[in-house]
From TrEMBL:
CDD domains: ASKHA_NBD_Arp5. One of its GO terms (biological process) is DNA damage response. It comes from Pseudozyma flocculosa. This is Related to ARP5 - Actin-related protein. The keyword DNA repair does not apply. Its main location: nucleus.
Length: 822
């Protein structure tokens, strides 16, 4: 399983769940260091025919001399290759110095400019960039100190499984035409690694490198390549997958994750799951609703879920945003400026209030003078004067003056700080309503109509007031009945309230489900609603509905144009607008009702805790996602609230504008503080790896996870083993050897053993062993073969004469060659 840090019980509980999570620092590409050039002329290799060993891997090139004498070569083999560096080149243009730089090996990581121009000689496992390959060989020979016109040493070099003849012919051309080597031999790196580890004559070799994974059976000390298999998945593809997973998981990550950092996370943090299906199910499971949560700092790591236990923090470099420190005098001056600004605002508000009051007094004086014209001129002239001022009757002028007098009284009382006694409003009278029209003149009939309308409005207000009073009485009665039931029969009251609470939650869920259905244009509910909207949005001139006379339905019956509303995506904007308008108020009412029931249960039912609230249920439901992103505890968003005041505030949101403004200011101050908080900045530069740690290596066994349409490693091994007789298969199963840098995950051997065990008969024993040094054993095996079996190395090598006479792609088979026919 994954390594997990545990809190020390002797030191007390940790202040945060994340303090118990392992932290891995993201590494940058290594700074290039100058290599010490080998003193070729002073070495015993000068002017000799000792072999030159080159492990030409797609990720790393390893090179060095080896003595032809086995006794002298033992020490060289034990030390490993003297030169090893990434098989990369970079060609950049320095515009300031007007120079073109050609860098190779680890020098390509010099700076951002050189890293941006990196390219590899390989396309997957096959050499295709021959200019880059020649640059790497030049760089290698220069490091080895070979400054002669020709390379006089025979070369033993690795190549990929079933290397294309064209690629080998170009490599031969490079060796014989450019470097004039005496002869060259090629072999498969995994077979040389098996030879170095002494696997014996019969073995199943599994090698997973930078670009591919191969399974090669060895029978009678020879690789049976006709039965070998290859999987197009290796460390490069796994690194790219992890890189893309982190990009999808954290799209707004403030720091760019480089491919080098992704490879480091892959090699250092990922591991192979011995039972992937069980581990994934364990990561999907969450603890019980009433158990301890990892967001509680006092919770032990033993109560963590599988995902929390697998979590690892990758910390990227960041710079602390140090806030500007202010002196006490500056803080006092700032506080005084705020107080002065508040006083100025209050003074401005009072001045505006006095100006409005003065304006109302002037208006009232003007209307009083206007009213005095009633006895100075004829009625017709007086009515024209009122109409010119915007009044239709004397009663409207009287009503306006009464309103202004009342407003002035309130303003004066507020200015003096006095309480204004409420004036008892007189009951309005309507004397002309019951008078016959025959007894009234024209003005009287008009006044009677006005009084009738006023009486109708007055009666409607009285009825509404009576209905509200009756509703309040019934509501008070229901509250009293509910309170009596709570006191006399608490169990029944609790059961009823919980049922109402569950029904409210079910209604919210049902509304959410319908909303999701309506968002799908092809659902039945959306299509039915679209038909209704089509009728409302019909452009027919005869009516707005489809069934109205002259509407769209009738036009279609007459053979008119077909209604195509909804065929254009822009028509659905009407649908979305209506949908949002209909659902918003109902959704608010549902949540308000739910909050009221929750508050009632929390206050009166001791068995109903905050853990059972709707917010807590959602928090537990979202905890899996939040743990996936934020690690143990899920961050601040995942914390299940335990403060009743916070819930009450949430239920009564928007209770007052002043309180809302104050809260908004507090939230802004808190946000500003968090932006400059060192801990917040540190958390923002962290990646949490949990599921990815087993998901990426699992692609070797389930390539479909990464979209690779090939068989997994277990199926490939089974297919290779089933191609032999039972006796040979038993020998191969007892000697399974795995090597390669992509096999260095923890638990790789155990998973390989169990997966092969599941495909073979139980009577056949199985034994799996790793390479002692998966990185350099291939080079050591080549050096060992060239020294201990130098005659075989020379007899199977290709000379320049063979190259010229038998073709550029000519090769001689040997037990370690990459092409072999049984």
């Amino acid at each position: 399983m994954a390594p997990v840090a545990t809190a020390d019980s002797a030191t007390g509980p940790s202040p945060s769940p994340l303090s118990a999570v392992p932290v891995h620092a993201a590494v940058d590409p290594p700074k290039p260091t100058p290599l010490t050039r080998f003193d070729y002329h002073a070495s015993p290799y000068w002017n000799s025919q000792c072999p030159l060993i080159i492990d030409n891997g797609s990720s790393e090139l390893r090179a060095g001399f080896c003595h032809a004498d086995p006794s002298a070569a033992a020490d060289v083999i034990a030390r490993g290759p003297p030169y090893h560096y990434d098989n990369l080149v970079s060609k950049v243009r320095d515009r300031k110095k007007n120079l073109t730089l050609l860098l190779a090996g680890n020098d390509v990581y010099a700076d951002g400019l050189t890293r941006g121009a990196i390219r590899s000689p390989f396309d997957n496992d096959v050499v295709c960039g021959w200019d880059a390959m020649e640059t790497m060989l030049d760089y290698t020979f220069a490091n080895l100190g070979i400054d002669t016109e020709r390379v006089q040493h025979p070369i033993c070099m690795t190549e990929t499984l079933c290397n294309p003849a064209y690629s080998r012919s170009i490599m031969n051309e490079l060796m014989f035409e450019a470097y004039d080597v005496p002869y060259v031999n090629y072999g498969l790196d995994c077979l040389f690694s098996a030879y170095q580890n002494g696997v014996g004559d019969d073995a199943l070799v599994v090698s997973s490198g930078h670009n591919s994974t191969v399974v090669v059976p060895m029978v009678a000390a020879k690789g049976v390549l006709t039965n070998a298999k290859r999987l197009s998945w290796g460390g490069a593809q796994a690194t790219d997958l992890l890189f893309r997973l982190t990009q999808l998981k954290y799209p707004g990550f403030p720091t760019r994750v480089t491919a080098w950092q992704a490879r480091d996370m892959l090699e250092e943090l990922c591991y192979v799951s011995t039972d992937y299906a069980a581990d994934i199910r364990g990561m999907e499971m969450m603890p019980s609703a009433f158990g301890p949560t990892s967001s509680d700092p006092s919770a032990s790591t033993s109560s963590w879920t599988a995902m929390e236990k697998a979590d690892v923090v990758v910390q990227f470099p960041y710079l602390d945003a140090v806030p500007a420190q202010k002196s006490q005098e500056e803080l006092d001056a700032q506080a005084e400026r705020r107080k002065a600004a508040g006083r100025r605002l209050l003074e401005q508000t009072r001045k505006m209030r006095l100006e409005k009051m003065l304006q109302k007094e002037n208006d009232l004086k003007y209307y009083t003078q206007l009213k005095e014209w009633k006895g100075k001129e004829r009625k017709a002239e007086y009515m024209k004067r009122l109409e010119s001022e915007g009044f239709s009757s004397e009663q409207e002028l009287e009503a306006t003056m009464k309103k202004m007098e009342a407003a002035l009284k309130r303003s004066r009382a507020k200015e003096l700080g006095e309480e204004l006694e409420e004036e008892k409003q007189e009951e309005p009278t309507f004397p002309l309503v019951d008078v016959p029209d025959a007894d009234l003149d024209e003005e009287g009939v008009k006044e009677k109509r006005r009084q009738r309308l006023m009486k109708a409005g007055h009666d409607a207000r009285l009825r509404a007031k009576a209905e509200k009073a009756e509703e309040k009485r019934l509501r008070d009665l229901e509250i009293q009945r509910d309170e009596d039931e709570r006191i006399n029969d608490p169990k029944a009251w609790s059961a009823r309230m919980r049922k109402d609470y569950d029904d409210a939650i079910d209604r919210i869920k049902e509304r959410k489900r319908l909303k999701e259905m309506l968002s799908d244009r092809k659902s039945l509910a959306a299509q039915q609603r679209m038909k209704n909207i089509t009728a409302l949005a019909s452009d027919s001139p005869g009516g707005s509905g489809a069934n109205t006379p002259g509407g769209s339905a009738r036009k279609r019956k007459r053979g008119g144009d077909e209604d195509t509303f909804g065929a254009d995506d822009d028509d659905w904007a009407i649908y979305r607008e209506i949908q949002n308008a209909d659902d918003s108020e109902e959704e608010e009412d549902s949540f308000a009702q739910l909050a009221a029931i929750e508050q009632r249960l929390l206050q009166s039912d001791p068995t109903f805790t905050v853990e059972e609230t709707y917010a807590a249920r959602l928090a537990r439901k979202n905890r899996l996602t939040l743990t996936f992103f934020n690690g143990p505890g899920g961050g601040d968003e995942a914390a299940i609230g335990s403060d009743l005041q916070a819930q009450a505030a949430a239920a009564a949101a928007g209770a007052g504008a002043g309180a809302g403004g104050k809260k908004g200011a507090q939230d802004k101050d808190a946000a500003d503080k968090n932006e400059s908080d060192p801990e917040t900045i540190k958390r923002a530069h962290q990646l949490h790896l949990n599921v990815e740690r087993i998901r990426v290596p699992e692609v070797l066994w389930q390539p479909g996870i990464a979209g690779v349409d090939q068989a997994g490693l277990d199926e490939i091994c089974a297919h290779v083993l089933n191609g032999f007789e039972v006796d040979t298969r038993a020998k191969l199963m007892k000697n399974i050897f795995y090597t390669g840098r992509h096999t260095l995950y923890p638990n790789f051997g155990a998973r390989l053993s169990s997966s092969i065990r599941a495909t073979q008969p139980a009577s056949l024993p199985i034994y799996v062993r790793p390479a002692k040094d998966a990185r350099f054993d291939a080079w050591r095996g080549m050096a060992r073969w060239c020294s201990t079996q130098n005659d075989a190395f020379r007899s199977t090598a290709i000379s320049k004469r063979d190259y010229e006479e038998k073709g550029h792609d000519y090769f001689i088979e040997h037990p370690f060659s990459a092409n072999w026919s049984a």
